Amino acid sequence: MRQNQPIWYDSSLGGWRLFCYEDIVRVQNDYQTFSSEPSNGGSFSIIALDPPRHRQLRSLVTPAFSARTILQQTPRIQRIARELLETALARGAMDMVADFAVPFPILVIADLLGLPPDNWQRVKEWTDTLINQSSSEVAQRSGRNASSTLPLDEISRVLAQATQDHHQQPRESLLRLLLAAEVDGQRLTEQELLGFFLTLLVAGNITTTQLLGNAILCFDENPEAWEQLQRDRSLVASAVEEVLRYLPPNRGTGGSRTIIGGRRATTDVEICGQLIRRGEEVFVTTISANFDEHHFSDPDRFDIGRMPNHHLSFGHGIHFCLGAPLARLETKIALELLLDLLPNWRLLHNVPLEQIRNHIVFGAQRLPLVFST
Ligand code: HEM
């Protein structure tokens, strides 16, 4: 596609799809021409807002998500990871997805938000509902039918309870930041607060889950890279980047701007000689950009020492993933823990891999590991 048809109308998404690195970066940089807001306006999340509102709301939480602040959470994140892995190890068998990759990012973000760890399964269900809802929007457009709705009442109740807990026993948390936040002297509305809460709670968990699972797939396919990592742990951070490039959790096929933003042309514009009309949608194909030979040498090679590695898996421009430092740290901690506790893991190959079924994220549903301790 990069060579022959760098822009293509994808009728299943109802929009234009881009394949080349340069074009994707151009669209993500030019937020005036390519809006993140849905045509009917309004959105529950900063991911689907344009400036100036986007900038105002994002700046509220930027400090809390900076690499430096996130790094301070290392011991707590390590503790959560270790507890999960040790529980699985004690059982002697493990599904990397269900036993680790699913609960880990949810427990971490719940902890950062100041929520009790007990209802993480519900958060997982909300996430799946939201993701399936977005997937089904795509399905509906392509003539299939499915629908599901988010239990907003229940989520509001959890937020109200967390707010009450916070007032009774204040502690440093993202929630404290959101409750105290003011934009131009005005508090966030209840709906904005709920939108932010929900975005933070769900935005990062399914993607990070798939990233952790995809790391297993990459190392299973490239055992020599795992051996290299065992010999040289200084490569863990660049290995995380290479997994992000090589097998991104979000291939960029996202059909809904509510989760992984598509863009809408605000004016007639030409890309690669193709006229995009005002109001038409444009989607990026991250997995293609990450293999663009104009940007990556030997792109088909999984190279954990790759440097530089400017993949587009966290997006680009003003909507660059807010949670990138957190997702990176979580994955680094998980890989280091595997190196410590489970260096000789192997993926069980007698069950066929099943792909997670939705349009937004890419990864396996189950990853049964065998190991000797
Ligand atoms: C490997 C894990 C992750 C991947 C691959 C990922 C991917 C992305 C991408 C591609 C975007 C840009 C969407 C666009 O341009 O429209 C984005 C935005 C965002 N991500 Fe992530 N994400 C991950 C983890 C997280 C985590 C852990 C959090 C928070 C806890 C998070 C919160 C957000 C938020 C709030 C935005 C919207 C930023 C904005 O619009 O300014 N993400 N993410």
UniProtKB/TrEMBL annotation:
The keyword Methyltransferase does not apply. It comes from the Bacteria. The keyword Transcription does not apply. Keywords: Heme, Iron, Metal-binding, Monooxygenase, Oxidoreductase. Transmembrane segments: none annotated. One of its GO terms (molecular function) is heme binding. Gene3D superfamilies: Cytochrome P450 (1.10.630.10). PROSITE patterns: CYTOCHROME_P450 (PS00086). PANTHER family: CYTOCHROME P450 YJIB-RELATED (PTHR46696:SF1), P450, PUTATIVE (EUROFUNG)-RELATED (PTHR46696). Belongs to the cytochrome P450 family. This is Putative cytochrome P450 YjiB. It comes from Reticulibacter mediterranei. The lineage of its organism: Bacteria, Bacillati, Chloroflexota, Ktedonobacteria, Ktedonobacterales.
